[in-house]
Amino acid sequence: MEFWMEWPLFMGLGALAGLVAGLLGVGGGLIIVPALVIILPKLGVQDHVAHLAVGTSLVSIVFTSLSSVWAHHKRGAVQWPVVSKLAPGIVMGALIGAGIASRLPSVVLQRIFGFLELYVAFQLTMNFKPKPHRVLPGPKGMFAVGNVIGMLSAIVGIGGGTITVPFLVWSNVKMQKAVATSAACGLPIALAGGAGFILSGLRQGGLPPQSFGYVYGPALIGIVATSVLFAPIGADLAHRLPSKHLKRVFALVLLILAARMLY
Question: What does pTM read for this prediction?
Fold first, then answer.
């Protein structure tokens, strides 16, 4: 693929990822990772493809989260006390997850992500909403939950919304506030997980030019350039539109991407 064709692909990917991140609170990584797994080999990248996809996704989520969170914060939807209680566990878990992922073969990482997308697609198709029947746990419980969210999210390069949103709704947080708070929790996941992937990839051979660790620079720039513009649009739509049909369309896209990742 010619160099001049890279940028429209990455910018289009960023626009879609940003819209999804703001609208559904599930993190743009569900789109970014499988798309990069498909795109990078066409650019001549043969080694560490899944690791580059996950690392690039996590670092891009730093910028997407900032944009999405600001849009939700202006509406007063982010529950900052909840974020502050989850964040320490999230950071530790994300660093551990990045370390685990760096030691996994690329094909295994790709398979794990494929199964995650199947789960999320099922969750969206069935319109799964856990019944709120308890309150948020205490400090130790929140740390433990944050640890699990951070670790699993960093391994597959997502913002954690697929775990955070159901947990918050289950704990009697309203859906819109759960989505907004989940977006804010994506920031520490991306910061810690992205740092882990950069550091673990610095000494690896076979990485493409313009990479820093397991992050592909051109993809990161293209994705961020548009994702930060489209995340607030998605956040605005999340507060104005019924998302039932949009979720089902997104679920279909995830099924297609999961099939590509698995087979």
Answer: 0.84
The per-residue pLDDT for range 126-160, each reduced to its tens digit, is 766 666 667 788 889 999 999 999 998 888 887 77
Please tell me the distance from the alpha carbon of residue 76 to that of residue 51, in angstroms, as a whole number.
36
Q: Report d(CA 106, CA 22) in Å as an integer.
A: 29
Residue 216 has which token pair? 């592909």
CB–CB of 150/97 below 8 Å? Answer: yes
Q: Euclidean distance between the first and final Cα of the chain, in Å?
A: 23
**If we measure between CA atoms, which residue out of 20, 8, 6, 51 comes closest to residue 33?**
51
Residues 6+ apart with CB under 8 A from 125: 247, 248, 251
The count of other CB atoms within 10 Å of the CB of residue 235 is: 28
Q: What is the domain partition of the chain in residue ranges?
A: 3-262
| Bridge partners (DSSP) listed for residue 216 | 211
- Output b/e per residue, 19-50; b: 16+ Cβ within 10 A: bbbbbbbbbbbbbbbbbbbebbeebebeebbb
For 136, phi then psi, to 5°, come to -65, 145
Question: Does residue 204 have a pLDDT over 90?
Answer: no
The answer to whether residue 77 scores a pLDDT higher than 80 is yes
